[in-house]
User: Which sequence fits this backbone?
């Protein structure tokens, strides 16, 4: 009798544990969020004078290019994502459909942050922010004419703001992000380490003065993160060709100088930001995905760090420039097939965090967004839900 009671107790404990695990989403689906769709941010007005951020580019596309094939509208309207009530709705829809992490494109120009209002005033003040996690992708590229449709087609080397920072500015940025964001309870961590992604490595190196100086600065950043009480820093590199090697780096006799370069700088993981960074996107989506999967496998066998698979919804930046390479046939159905390939990759790597990144939540002017539109409705979000949420719910029922 005593043995039966013990067995019953163990069974009940296991059942409770399994049920609790089933309720939790198994995969972390992280969508990049471009924070330019905000109203009343004065620093956005030089590029978008209407005061609604880059919605202006979406709204005026047909006026600027009458009869152009690109003619889309957001089902939620031209919303202000820096409004906490709006962001609360977005968090609700994102998490309902399986997106449980936002990766905020984060900018710093002219000695201060840029486009931070969506994160600070919208996301962090939303009443349901506890449902969603976030981390930062430092978009440290130069600002040129591309955002301003009045000048986007002008081909000139016109740097409005540089993404380069020196060591003093770098330390200011890092200390600020550790205090303001890393310590926030919703900041995304891997093994307790805050994740911080960097977009443009040549810019970082140029600002800091060389590879050795950059490696030293990043090592300092890791130490400062530890001083703040974390076990370390998950330093994530944006995977694309310009970031994976550097003319000033001597890798010696190593068989993989790119891997040595990344290790030298201290990056511990990587993911992509956009398919357009590494493959021909003027192609059918299924053909693109064949090339993408080959790239995943190449990275997996060539680098010592952890690679997290990436899926882009599409690519077409003609709203800004009028002309563009265009991903073809990127329907919600084909997007779902791509997500299943990313899921299979994650499943083949059970020792790493089941993180999958998506471009993006809202890159309307690059035509790579999950948000509902008048062309596909909620199709892309429903695809995420079918792959990552419905599966979880079926597991619960069993």
Assistant:
């Amino acid at each position: 009798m005593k043995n039966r009671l013990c067995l019953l107790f163990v069974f009940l404990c296991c059942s409770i544990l399994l049920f609790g695990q089933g309720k939790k989403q198994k995969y972390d689906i992280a969508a990049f969020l471009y924070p330019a769709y905000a109203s009343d941010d004065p620093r956005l007005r030089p590029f978008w004078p209407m005061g609604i951020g880059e919605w202006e580019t979406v709204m005026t596309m047909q006026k600027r290019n009458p009869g152009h094939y690109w003619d889309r509208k957001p089902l939620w309207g031209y919303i202000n994502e820096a409004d906490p009530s709006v962001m609360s709705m977005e968090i609700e829809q994102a998490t309902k459909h399986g997106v449980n992490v936002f990766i905020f494109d984060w900018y710093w120009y002219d000695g201060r942050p840029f486009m931070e209002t969506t994160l600070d005033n919208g996301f962090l003040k939303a009443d349901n922010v506890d449902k969603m996690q976030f981390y930062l992708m430092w978009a440290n590229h130069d600002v040129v004419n591309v955002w301003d449709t009045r000048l986007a087609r002008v081909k000139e080397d016109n740097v409005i703001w540089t993404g380069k920072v020196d060591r003093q500015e770098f330390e200011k940025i890092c200390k600020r992000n550790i205090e303001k964001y890393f310590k926030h309870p919703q900041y995304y961590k891997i093994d307790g380490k805050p994740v911080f992604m960097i977009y443009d490595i040549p810019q970082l190196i140029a600002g800091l003065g060389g590879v050795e100086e950059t490696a030293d600065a990043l090592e300092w950043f890791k130490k400062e993160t530890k001083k703040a009480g974390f076990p370390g820093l998950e330093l994530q590199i944006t995977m694309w060709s310009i970031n994976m090697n550097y003319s000033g780096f001597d890798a010696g006799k190593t068989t993989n100088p790119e891997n040595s370069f990344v290790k030298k700088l201290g990056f511990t993981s990587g993911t992509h930001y956009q398919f357009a960074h590494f493959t021909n996107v003027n192609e059918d989506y299924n053909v693109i995905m064949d090339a993408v999967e080959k790239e995943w496998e190449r990275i997996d066998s060539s680098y010592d760090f952890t690679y997290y698979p990436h899926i882009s919804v599409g690519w077409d930046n003609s709203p800004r420039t009028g002309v563009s390479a265009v991903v073809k046939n990127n329907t919600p159905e084909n997007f779902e097939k791509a997500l299943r390939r990313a899921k299979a990759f994650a499943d083949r790597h059970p020792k790493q965090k089941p993180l999958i990144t998506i471009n993006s939540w809202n890159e309307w002017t690059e035509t790579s967004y999950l948000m509902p539109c008048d062309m596909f409705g909620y199709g892309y979000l429903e695809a995420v839900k079918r792959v990552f949420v419905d599966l979880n719910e079926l597991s619960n029922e069993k």
Observations:
- Confidence is low (pLDDT under 50) at residues 5-23.
